[in-house]
Amino acid sequence: MKKSWDKVILIGFRGAGKTTVGKFLAERLNLPFLDLDDEVQRRVGLSIKEMVERYGWSYFREMEKEVLEDLIEKERCVVALGGGSVLHEDLMEKLKNRAFIIYLKISPAMAVERITKDSKSEQTRPSLSDLSLVEEVEKVLKERAPLYEKYADIIIEADKEDLNTLLKEILKHLEDEPWR
Fold it and tell me: Which of 58, 70, 85, 113 fits 81 for a cystine, CB–CB 3.0-4.6 Å?
């Protein structure tokens, strides 16, 4: 039996295109778009990098969890979660019951390429470790991939550069899914 859902959630690693795809998908579905990281920054009044530098990663994760809790109740929207949101497994389980979750799967090499090309990345995204970018991406992606897969209703290969192809693939899946 298919589940019924009231929102579309995009999950995946940094650089997978969750925000870009999410904005276009929301437009196509005529739904509001939310970016979890943006919402956390708006509520706290600091960038993620500033939060982590001042208060540490645990503070950011706590703020992220608060926003994610509020999001569970929100209906009829498209949401891009932060790459580490899947670490809040209790909330992800609740979300999985109310949302159609799309995992934008990205290779470590493509993640590094996109992160490196993103001029805002260094100013807004602090490192998760003392490792080099390549080592960090490989390590963290390996740790999180099972969680991304666990919560995903569908997995979309996001290494493709063509946004239209990604959107068509996602929309094809959504056509067969029951809305609440």
Answer: 85
